């Protein structure tokens, strides 16, 4: 029996909750987040997404051709997303040319290392990273302006559908993977959960 994505969220409910439920998101929902906190997240997440784009590109490079459609649609969406981040930063008068904070560097370094792993591991990591934002931005419910736009980006039904497709593909890859590779995929899932939590924490403790 191979492990599936659904098994992973069931096996680590506490870790996953900490990755997707955070006062940062609750305070975006009720509008009480401080601009300094939100801006820190915005700028650091832009840098995260640049490296996530590289991870997805490397994942595509090792994927079976039957998985190209979904991954290419993801890369296309990231093109739009990176441009959108630049617009959101400009609207707030923020420069993106800032140093990465420690939690951001750690997460990005980890992604670079894991992009050398087997496809099943990469596919699991990509799914978990996208699911974290899909659930995280949805869970608090409707958000106040100007945060509604951010909740919509990762919470919308098309993105939810994309995450389900990533799950299907990761499950397929896991079903064909050796027990060692499945264990690496499980470790990748746990790592994503930990890194997501500390990324929220990084933004939240800025100017709080
Ligand atoms: C930290 N995790 C983080 N940032 C993101 N933008 C996503 C996941 C989803 O792409």
Ordered list of secondary-structure elements with their pairings:
Blueprint: H1 5-11, H2 13-20, H3 23-29, H4 35-62, H5 68-91, H6 102-114, H7 119-138, H8 148-155, H9 157-175, H10 179-204
Helix pairs in contact: 2-10, 4-5, 4-6, 4-7, 4-10, 6-10, 7-8, 7-9, 7-10
The structure holds 4-amino-5-hydroxymethyl-2-methylpyrimidine.
Structure commentary:
The chain is mostly helical and 208 residues long. It has a single domain (22-94, 102-204), classed as Heme oxygenase-like (Heme Oxygenase, Chain A, Up-down Bundle), CATH 1.20.910.10. The chain is built from ten helices and no strands. Helix 2 runs parallel beside helix 10 and helix 4 (35-62) packs parallel to helix 6. The radius of gyration is 16 Å and the shape is globular. The model has no long low-confidence stretch (mean pLDDT 96). 4-amino-5-hydroxymethyl-2-methylpyrimidine is lined by residues 45, 48-49, 52, 129-130, 132-133, 196, 199. 4-amino-5-hydroxymethyl-2-methylpyrimidine (HMH) binds at residues 45, 48-49, 52, 129-130, 132-133, 196, 199.
